[in-house]
């Protein structure tokens, strides 16, 4: 892991910014704590994505540390291949996180629509993700939840990494930190072992396999079923299983990424090892970083690239009538509970982040 120069965040939370500064347009996403809206900042007419999270749901799911951690990490990060934060604020009931708007939707939506991607499209997507991971890893951050839902497309067809709720500053003794999504979670994480950057590259390999074949290599209805499958057999793409239009080099890249043992996995020794694999070694990395390449997959701007079912309900309490959630809502009347969210504020205009390879506080 690279060294990082994070400093304690000293954000002034007295500055007033609220939801009244934004025009809410429509829902473009749904998460565990609430919805993601397309919004317009009234003063500048800029469009953003706003994550609106019900505090009662955050409390009920015991996820205060997760949402506070995401805001803290995002205040230290800024890069062209991650979804960047512009504002964060709160009221008595909700937390609000205002991010770059990604009009192309997420890769899960497009994978559901197209079932698979071509090798050219997959290579471009993976190259974007590699640059995003390189930036995070150089700054000591493990994302730990790389999956199609957390990979979103901008207007040029470039992919960015989002959702830093379970991302962590790397700690060599992190065996107890086992959060993640079954199916993309590295074996060492599932088996409660210490893990590093190779865990994110395992997830990247799973995604490559999924884009090639339309399914993940290890399937199951539960975390235990998936873990048992992984432990039972090392899945590899055989030469006679490579789909038409795909190269042997692509299959080898994926096979080396999904190695169960992190010591055998491509990426263990850092991003250069990944970039120098025969499948990617001739990729125009500098042009990708400059956004001067034409993406082989550009979502139609005239289409809605989001799941339209998300637009149907604007009620944050829908399907939330359980007693635990109601109890959490009652607790929010107490200032001591509200204080758990103290410091949930950010304004990019006050504290401009550094867009270099070093993550810094502003």
TrEMBL record:
Q: Which family does it belong to?
A: Belongs to the protein kinase superfamily.
- Entries under InterPro entries matching the protein: AGC-kinase_C (IPR000961), Kinase-like_dom_sf (IPR011009), Prot_kinase_dom (IPR000719), Protein_kinase_ATP_BS (IPR017441), Ser/Thr_kinase_AS (IPR008271), Ser_Thr_kinase_AGC (IPR050236)
Q: Which Gene3D superfamilies is this protein grouped with?
A: Phosphorylase Kinase, domain 1, Transferase(Phosphotransferase) domain 1
Tell me the ranges covered by the Protein kinase domain, including all copies.
22-280
Sites binding ATP sit at 51
User: Which reaction is this enzyme known to catalyze?
Assistant: L-threonyl-[protein] + ATP = O-phospho-L-threonyl-[protein] + ADP + H(+); L-seryl-[protein] + ATP = O-phospho-L-seryl-[protein] + ADP + H(+)
Annotated AGC-kinase C-terminal domain ranges read 281-356
Q: What is its EC number?
A: 2.7.11.1
- Species name for this entry? Blepharisma stoltei
Q: Which UniProt keywords apply?
A: ATP-binding, Kinase, Nucleotide-binding, Serine/threonine-protein kinase, Transferase
What SUPFAM superfamilies does the entry give?
Protein kinase-like (PK-like)
Instruction: Cite the GO molecular-function annotations of the record.
Output: ATP binding; protein serine/threonine kinase activity
Which SMART domains does the UniProt entry name for this protein?
S_TKc
PANTHER family to which the protein is assigned, alphabetical: PROTEIN KINASE DOMAIN-CONTAINING PROTEIN (PTHR24356:SF374), SERINE/THREONINE-PROTEIN KINASE (PTHR24356)
Q: Which PROSITE patterns match?
A: AGC_KINASE_CTER, PROTEIN_KINASE_ATP, PROTEIN_KINASE_DOM, PROTEIN_KINASE_ST
Please give the name of this protein.
Answer: non-specific serine/threonine protein kinase
Keyword Transcription in record: no
Q: Does the keyword Cytoplasm apply?
A: no
């Amino acid at each position: 892991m690279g060294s990082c120069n994070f400093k304690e965040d000293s954000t002034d939370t007295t500055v007033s910014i609220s939801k009244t500064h934004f025009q809410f347009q429509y829902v473009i996403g749904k998460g565990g704590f609430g919805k993601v809206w397309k919004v317009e900042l009234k003063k500048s007419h800029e469009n953003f994505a706003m994550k609106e999270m019900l505090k009662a749901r955050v409390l009920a799911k015991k996820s205060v540390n997760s949402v506070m951690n995401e805001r803290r990490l995002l205040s230290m990060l800024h890069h062209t291949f991650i979804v960047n934060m512009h504002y964060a604020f709160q009221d008595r009931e909700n937390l609000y996180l205002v991010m770059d708007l990604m009009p192309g939707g997420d890769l899960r939506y497009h994978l559901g629509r197209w079932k698979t991607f071509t090798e050219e499209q997959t290579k471009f997507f993976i190259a974007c993700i590699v640059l995003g991971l390189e930036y995070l890893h150089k700054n000591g951050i493990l994302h730990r939840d790389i999956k199609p839902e957390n990979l979103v497309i901008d207007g040029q067809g470039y992919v960015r990494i989002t959702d830093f709720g379970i991302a962590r500053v790397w700690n060599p003794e992190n065996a107890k930190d086992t959060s993640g999504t079954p199916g993309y979670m590295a074996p060492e994480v599932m088996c409660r072992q210490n893990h590093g950057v190779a865990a994110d590259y395992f997830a990247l390999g799973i995604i490559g396999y999924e884009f090639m074949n339309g399914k993940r290599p290890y399937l199951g209805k539960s975390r235990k079923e998936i873990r048992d499958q992984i432990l039972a057999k090392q899945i590899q793409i055989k030469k006679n299983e490579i789909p038409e239009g795909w190269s042997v080099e692509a299959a080898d890249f994926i096979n080396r990424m999904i190695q169960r043992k992190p010591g055998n996995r491509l990426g263990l020794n850092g991003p250069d090892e990944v970039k120098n694999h025969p499948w990617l070694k001739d990729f125009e990395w500098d042009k990708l970083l400059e956004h001067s390449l034409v993406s082989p997959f550009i979502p139609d701007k005239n289409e809605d690239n989001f799941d339209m079912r998300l637009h149907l309900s604007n009620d944050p309490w829908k399907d939330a009538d359980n007693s635990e959630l109601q109890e959490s809502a009652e607790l929010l009347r107490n200032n001591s509970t509200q204080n758990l969210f103290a410091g949930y504020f950010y304004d990019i205009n006050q504290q401009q982040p550094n867009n270099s390879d070093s993550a810094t506080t502003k």
